[in-house]
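Appendix C reproduces, verbatim, an entry submitted by the partner laboratory led by Prof. M.T., so that reviewers can inspect both the input and the predicted structure.
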Amino acid sequence: MNLFFVYKDGHVVTPGLDGTILRGITRDSVIQLIKDRGLEVQERKITLDEMRDGINSGEIVEAFACGTAAVITPVGQFASKNETIGSADAEPGALTVSLREELTGIQYGTVEDRHGWLYKLK
C-alpha cells in the first residue's frame, strides 16, 4: 500500500521510492491521474510530525492509500497504541473519490483509457 496526502492548496505528497516504498503499477497510475488534473505531486519523505501537524491544522485535507487489491481507499484515521490522528468519521475527499471512480472506470472499461494501460486478451 502507498499513502497519499492532499494539501489544501491542491498539491499531493506521497513518500518517495527510497528505502521501504516499492514501485507499483497502481501507484504510478494514481500519480499520472493526479498530474492529468493539473495538480503537483511531490514524491518525498513525509514525517509523522508533518502528517500529524498537517491533519490537525487542516493543511492536509485528504489522505488515501492505494494498492493492487484496494485500488484507492480513503483514510480518515491513523492510530497507534499511543495516539490517534484524524477522525474515523471523516468522509472521503473529492480528489480521493474522483481518482477512485476514474481508475476503477478504466479497469472496468467504462472510462476511456487515455494512457493505453489496458490490454485486450484473446
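The first strand starts at residue 2 and ends at 7. Additional entries are available on request from the coordinating office.
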